[in-house]
Amino acid sequence: MPQDLFDAALPPEAAHQQLAPGAVLLHGFARDMDAALLQAIEAVITQAPLRHMQTPGGYTMSVATTNCGSLGWVSDSHGYRYAVLDPQNGTPWPAMPACFLDLAGRAAAKAGYDHFAPESCLINTYLPGAKLSLHQDKDEKDLSAPIVSVSLGLPAVFLFGTPNRKDRAQRYRLVHGDVVVWGGPSRLAFHGVMPLADGAHALLGRRRINLTFRSPLDKLAQS
Ligand code: MD6
Ligand code: FE
Hints:
30% strand, 4 helices, binds fe (iii) ion, Jelly Rolls, 4-stranded antiparallel β-sheet
């Protein structure tokens, strides 16, 4: 049976796909709350506008980025880091919307990671052609917390490998409402996004939005 038909016939909560040890794709998990998510995203973007960050190597990212939560991921000529203030206006990032926290916690629990309470949500907007090169998320002190990644809008080809750069990454098509959770043995897996194909999405139009939830603080060191 074709996988797409199989997924469409199942309630969203039944459609999991293990990508690697500790890594799960929850098909359509966020689909039924898309309107609330989009409204919250627009409110964040109004306070903390999308911008194309510079990489430490001097490139401009094709993806446009902002953040919400107590910490925001930023990139500039000095490197990658988490910042409590938006460097563009010197004020705190907008608070994490309640529907974001709810979604991230439920998705993590579904994937086997209980009590995930992210301090940070990175919001990425992709227009056709935008991409993200293969990389590891390793700017976080707490590697025991998973990463929760929510896809909205145009479909994308997601690359997901292992913590070893030499292993070939697998390709997965992510559509509106899909959520990928990775942690444990996959926490440092290489991942990326292929250049976005052109198209039009009924709710988001000609773009893809990705929400990436992370818990950058070392909770053990703090307690
Ligand atoms: C995505 N973003 O935009 C996934 N990782 O679909 C990431 O994997 C990511 O945008 C680390 C830092 C910035 C990012
Ligand atoms: Fe990443």
